[in-house]
Amino acid sequence: MHTILANTQLAPNVVRLDVVAPRIAEIRRAGQFVIVRKGRGAERIPLTIADADPARGGITLVIQAVGKSTRELAALRPGEAIQDIAGPLGQPTELLERGHAVCVGGGVGTAVVHPIAQSLRARGVRVTSIIGGRAKEWVIFEAELRALGAVIVCTDDGSYGRPGFVTQALADVLADGAVDAVYAVGPVPMMRAVAELTRPSGVPTIVSLNPVMVDGTGMCGGCRVTVGGETKFACVDGPEFDGHQVDFAELADRLGTYRLFEREALERHEGPCKIGLEQ
Amino acid sequence: MSNDLTPKERMAIDRQHMPEQDAGARRRTFTEVNLGFTEQLALLEARRCLLCKSPKCISGCPVLVDIPRFINFLAAGNLPAAAESLLSDNALPAVTGRVCPQETQCEEVCVRGVKGAPVAVGYLERYVADWARAHGVGAEQPSAPPSGKRAAVIGSGPAGLTAAGELVKYGHDVTVYEAFHTPGGVLVYGIPEFRLPKQIVEDEVERLKARGVKIECNVIIGKTYTLRELRERFDAVFIAVGAGLPVFMNVPGENLKGVYSANEYLTRTNLMAAYAFPEVDTPILTGKRVAVVGGGNVAMDAVRTAKRLGADEATIVYRRGKKELPARIEEIHHAEEEGIRFEFLVAPVEVVGNAEGWVTGLTCLRMALGEPDDSGRRRPVPVPGSEFVIACDIVIVAIGTRANPLLTGSTPELKLNKWGNIEADERGATSIPGVYAGGDIVRGAATVILAMGDGKTAARAIDAYLRGS
Ligand SMILES: Cc1cc2nc3c(=O)[nH]c(=O)nc-3n(C[C@H](O)[C@H](O)[C@H](O)COP(=O)(O)OP(=O)(O)OC[C@H]3O[C@@H](n4cnc5c(N)ncnc54)[C@H](O)[C@@H]3O)c2cc1C
Ligand SMILES: Cc1cc2nc3c(=O)[nH]c(=O)nc-3n(C[C@H](O)[C@H](O)[C@H](O)COP(=O)(O)OP(=O)(O)OC[C@H]3O[C@@H](n4cnc5c(N)ncnc54)[C@H](O)[C@@H]3O)c2cc1C
Ligand code: SF4
Ligand code: SF4
Ligand code: FES
């Protein structure tokens, strides 16, 4: 049992959960995730470890409530508990040794990019973060990232920071030169657009893929993605890959496998769907 | 009826049939197909055993269950003694009685099989085991006094559970680490309820816990802890992580929506109970037409599961012929009775799909049998121009598994063979002192009883190691 230490609303439908998981807090590294199962009958779902506090034995999960499982987790109050948390899983981020890294976070992906930026900064790499959201209230982790370097905020509706997509801001930063690596985490179309943007200049671009997972340990193959023409299991070989090699179209397509089920689960959970699941 | 029968009288009894759920009814339910012998059937079948002086059957059993001994007690109506006898040889007879490939083990060599049907050793084993479970008999053997030594077991499949049970009996302090949220290994995530009720595994786990075995789920050795850390914290380690890496066909279209590995398909259904969606949260695609590639127990479990999940047409696609099918004979019979289709001598070359990325069919080639290969079986060779399409909306790949490198890959000093399996000697000792291994991670995909045998052998070796002899 993993007790909830705190539940903080970060944006509409996005919460930060601090949860007791001492061993994972102690050894996790940037880029790794956990598999969470709330309790009997619940799904096993993957969530990135956004931060950890080894002294308190806590890990931070940032959850976007998109479907039944994530909504149930997001509704947990301090003192309540998650039954199963397994990890840390996946390969840690391949970190740049020195130079200048740009960390691009879209929506809840900003929470995932945060530990990467933290680790880069800790080794002395200069970090510029470009983070985006639909509107001002969707922008998360801005203060945390500001503590690590320059931050450019973009909103789709222009209600805060630069109007437009993160890719436009990234194009400007790239044009200024001296970017040694780009780390991009967010919705699949965003990561694909970032990879296309850096492809001509060949700036190494690492993306964090989010296929559907079951075990997270390499035994089901459900998380398979095509990278450089080869099948990889994202849970053990990734979840981060060379963005220039990823077959994003296949990933986006496979993510739709359970769409009808997801809708049904949500409707049973809270009545007819109002938010729409399409990202 | 007395057990004082002459051999002739014994020979006159025919093999008893296992009562089963009607094939029509069971197609849609996950409850167990075999209903188990009644007392009358069990006694009759037990009396068929000739109680041979040098019983061949024992040599056919990988853990050398003293078969005539427990059968003789059973035939005499002394069930407590039968249970004691069986359980002292085999920790999980309720499992092996159900899933052992008896026809290639104990029953294959039974003398009664020479001129007719062998004694139904598996059914009798199951009968005695179920009786013992129902009456709480024979389960508790005394433990040795605490040794003060600690042993870790990695993986809670049949190898790990057996080793844990033996090690506590020897007086050691045992902790089992399991990657999943539920212990049991393939017994819970792979083999379906209709063949092996999960309650049996749950009860066994509870029994081990009651004896003091600690089971920690959600711990992945190689991730949560390294093997080296365990080696430091424990006096000995037994590795029983199974052979869990699914092999795919490597043909075009394999990443279309609707293609599953058997591992994923069965895990979603068994461990996550996806058949009960939306009562539970894990979904599974259900198809009207399902093609399962492969011919082993895993393929049979997948195809029969597909039928139960509502497929009108569920087909086994196998590249050799019927007599080469590696699955247990009983599973093949049951599959046939349940209306499973078989396409023999057929090899898939491509999964085809529609514009939305959903599977619509499996393109295959017909095969002919050529020269024998390394395994002594005739090698299937494609017939030119024989391409055809099996229309289907789900494809399940059940062509084998390999060693999962999660643990072994993080421990370079652990010696592996060229297939990535751990090298262990006949006592289970690996290249690292104090570290033992057994089950599928050593043998490659094998059987429950062999895994259990390895667990028992390694536990004995670990006990000797811990006592410094
Ligand atoms: C390595 C990894 C790290 C992730 N980190 C985070 C994170 O830090 N925060 C966060 O909010 N989300 C994260 N996700 C995504 C998160 O796991 C899914 O949003 C979640 O499983 C959806 O469950 P649901 O029942 O709420 O929604 P559903 O109604 O089931 O699905 C909504 C969406 O989630 C996708 N999805 C469904 N099941 C899974 C699954 N088992 N695995 C992956 N995706 C699934 C669906 O394709 C769909 O697009 C991560 C995914 C991966 C693979
Ligand atoms: C669908 C199916 C049907 C089968 N049918 C039969 C049958 O009818 N008869 C028969 O005799 N055999 C059958 N088998 C084969 C049999 O189940 C296996 O040979 C047997 O289970 C192997 O036992 P094991 O203990 O070595 O490993 P497993 O049962 O595979 O258990 C290994 C356990 O270790 C855990 N694990 C893996 N990695 C780690 C790690 N790094 N850290 C912690 N835990 C870990 C796994 O989650 C798992 O629980 C079948 C197999 C399958 C898949
Ligand atoms: S354990 Fe298996 S092989 Fe041995 S006697 Fe029992 S059924 Fe036969
Ligand atoms: S070989 Fe057959 S008949 Fe003889 S003891 Fe064994 S089970 Fe009985
Ligand atoms: S989630 Fe099962 S193999 Fe990756």
Helix percent of chain B reads: 25-40%
Cα-to-Cα separation, first versus last residue of chain A: 32 Å
Sequence of strands across the biggest β-sheet of chain A: 12-11-10-9-13-14-17
- Which whole number gives the mean pLDDT of chain A? 92
Radius of gyration of chain A using CA atoms only: 18 Å
Walk me through the structure.
The complex is a heterodimer of chains A (279) and B (469). Chain A contains nine helices and 17 strands. Chain A has 279 residues and is of the alpha/beta class. Chain A folds into two domains: 88 residues, Translation factors (Elongation Factor Tu (Ef-tu), domain 3), CATH 2.40.30; 156 residues, Rossmann fold (3-Layer(aba) Sandwich), CATH 3.40.50. In chain A, helix 5 runs parallel beside helix 6. Chain A starts with a strand and ends in a 9-residue tail after the last helix. Chain B is an alpha/beta fold and 469 residues long. Chain B folds into three domains: 128 residues, Fumarate Reductase Iron-sulfur Protein, Chain B, domain 2, CATH 1.10.1060.10; 160 residues, 3-Layer(bba) Sandwich (FAD/NAD(P)-binding domain); 152 residues, FAD/NAD(P)-binding domain (3-Layer(bba) Sandwich), CATH 3.50.50. Chain B is built from 19 helices and 16 strands. In chain B, the strands form four sheets. Chain B has a five-stranded parallel β-sheet, sandwiched between helices. The relative contact order of chain B is 0.12. The chains are: A alpha/beta (279), B alpha/beta (469). The complex binds flavin-adenine dinucleotide (2 copies), iron/sulfur cluster (SF4) (2 copies) and FE2/S2 (inorganic) cluster. FE2/S2 (inorganic) cluster binds next to loops of chain A. FE2/S2 (inorganic) cluster (FES) binds next to loops of chain A.
